[in-house]
Design brief:
Helices cover 30% and strands 17% of the residues. The chain has helices spanning 19-30, 48-51, 83-95, 185-193, 219-227, 229-251, 253-270, 274-280, 297-301, 359-362, 396-416, 426-440, 468-475; strands spanning 9-15, 36-39, 101-102, 107-113, 118-123, 128-136, 159-161, 175-179, 198-202, 209-210, 292-293, 306-309, 313-317, 320-323, 328-330, 333-336, 351-352, 381-383, 422-424, 483-485. The strands form 5 sheets. Strands 1, 2, 3, 4, 5, 6, 17 and 18 form an 8-stranded mixed sheet that branches. The chain has a 5-stranded parallel sheet with strand order 7-16-8-9-12, with helices on one face. Strands 13-14-15 form a 3-stranded antiparallel sheet, with no helix packed on it. Strand 13 and strand 14 form a beta hairpin.
């Protein structure tokens, strides 16, 4: 029997098999719309939860909230799921899509063909696909950020980034240096401390860390949540609403200032060593950077074989890291917990809109998108988890599902009107960007500290400057008047 080659044209192409890509794919399948294909560059699904496999990697959003409401219930083991369990969950969702996912299909470029009113997608194997509509669920935090340190490339030992952790890597008995004290560092640090001979943590800025209060779910609790949909939905709603209320403190900084004193007192109570306590006491306002959750960070810093170094790094010399005071630290392994490239993510170079303009070039003025999804020079193109859709207080999965429903409504409208092309009006796009800039000025994130939320001009381009409920309200309907059609 002759097997027909896969089609080269699709009404819809989705890029990525993380939460974003799987969400739109599953919603379309559920609606009986099987007119799409999902492209995944790796051999398996999972996105960031496949790529981030460093020891201790876990989510800082409760697992029952960090899951798709449209998908079947998952038997979560812990309040805060670890990376392997989240990857298994996403693999389970992807399995239901079957052959709709094409693996090892890395997108080399995607360009808008104006005359044909189509997107042409070129893959790494040289093949080309076309589609009427293109959805990019590639994730804003996918490309590792490597620090600009003199001599880094000449380090003689293994150089490991938390976002590209080698499989089955072991550091038992090694002298390890850890650069960074952000979200990845406070997870990988305690895990490494359990096996290494020496751990030196190089801190540039003291982070705000609060108790995580993680725990495993009892067998009886898990059974009840699996068997009683009402109980599961009520628990999920409670998790959502309690976190949504925390948004008050980010939008009205005076409220966070009142909370800050209690967090400082808790830190002082937990860390007995006065010298260490002075090193880890934050100097930035609580919440202007990401608030970190951990039950083990402070106790790890007090271990006898763990050192917190606050002297700035000057350079790296073979197997030594040298600080500005001239102190030399001999290391076998260097671990970089230095985050991701957000403001300059090379993903933006892949997409070319009208007249060959790349998304990177379009964003030179400011990284922005209407409702975090669309730009006027990129017709029929949706960017999931784009600018202004991150959250500092709640689950990004909620935002993804809001976007998914809006995209479904947009596609339904365009199809019903029998239009081949649509784009957000330039004035609507500009007005939205202006609104986001104005609303962001009042938030805690712009009260004087530097973070990856802010662009070089000091503007927030990452987080939604409001409650996630207000984003749901804005995306509950597709406003056809905001767009041009052809």
């Amino acid at each position: 029997m002759t097997v027909s080659p896969p089609p080269h044209h699709w009404p819809l192409i989705i890029i990525g098999t993380g939460f974003a890509g799987l969400s739109i794919a599953l919603h379309r399948m559920k609606a009986g719309q099987e007119d799409f294909i999902v492209l995944e560059q790796a051999q398996s699904p999972g996105g960031t939860w496949r790529d981030n496999r460093y020891p201790g990697c876990a989510c800082d959003v409760p697992s029952h909230l960090y899951s798709l409401s449209c998908a079947p219930p998952w038997d979560w083991q812990r309040k805060y799921a670890e990376a392997p369990e989240i990857e298994a969950y996403l693999a389970h969702l992807a399995h239901s899509l079957g052959s709709r996912i094409r693996y090892q299909a890395q997108v080399k470029s995607a360009a808008w063909q104006a005359q044909k009113q189509l997107w042409q997608v070129e893959l790494n194997d040289g093949s080309r696909l076309t589609c009427r509509f293109l959805v990019a669920g590639v994730g804003p935090l996918s490309e590792p950020a490597w620090p600009d340190l003199p001599g880094l490339k000449n380090f003689t030992g293994p150089l490991l980034h938390t976002a590209r952790w080698p499989k089955d890597q072991t550091l038992k008995g090694q002298r390890v240096g850890l650069i960074g004290t952000g979200a990845s560092a406070i997870q990988v640090g305690p895990a490494l401390a359990q096996e290494v001979a020496q751990l030196i943590i190089f801190q540039r800025t003291a982070p705000w860390v609060v108790d995580r209060k993680d725990h495993s779910y009892a067998t009886g609790t898990r059974r009840l949540l699996q068997r009683l949909p009402f109980l599961r939905q009520t628990y999920r709603a409670w998790l959502y609403l309690t976190r949504e209320l925390k948004g008050l403190a980010f939008l009205w900084p005076s409220l966070m200032h009142r909370i800050e004193g209690g967090v400082r007192r808790n830190l002082a109570h937990k860390v007995a060593n006065p010298q260490l306590r002075q090193k880890i006491m934050p100097t930035t306002p609580l919440g202007c950077k990401r608030i970190l959750l951990s039950d083990t960070w402070w106790s790890t810093l007090e271990l006898p074989h763990v050192t917190l170094e606050t002297d700035p790094i000057h350079h790296i010399e073979a197997a030594h890291l040298v600080t500005e005071t001239g102190a030399r630290h001999a290391l076998d392994v260097l671990v970089l917990a230095t985050g991701f490239r957000y403001q300059d993510n090379p993903m933006a170079r892949l997409f070319k809109g009208e007249n060959g303009l790349t998304l990177e070039e379009f964003w030179k003025k400011q990284r922005s998108a209407y409702l975090g999804m669309m730009m006027p020079s990129f017709p029929n193109f949706f960017l999931l988890t784009g600018p202004f859709t991150g959250l500092g207080h709640n689950s990004i999965v909620f935002m993804i599902e809001c976007q998914t429903r809006w995209i479904q409504a947009a596609l339904a409208h365009v199809t019903t009107q029998r239009k081949n092309e649509f784009r957000v009006r330039a004035q609507v796009y500009e007005a939205f960007a202006k609104e986001m800039n104005q609303r962001s000025k009042k938030t805690l994130w712009m009260q004087g500290c530097q973070s990856w939320y802010l662009d070089p001009a000091g503007r927030n381009t990452a987080l939604w400057p409001g409650f996630s409920l207000s984003y749901w309200w804005r995306t509950r309907h597709f406003n056809a008047k905001d767009f041009e059609y052809a």
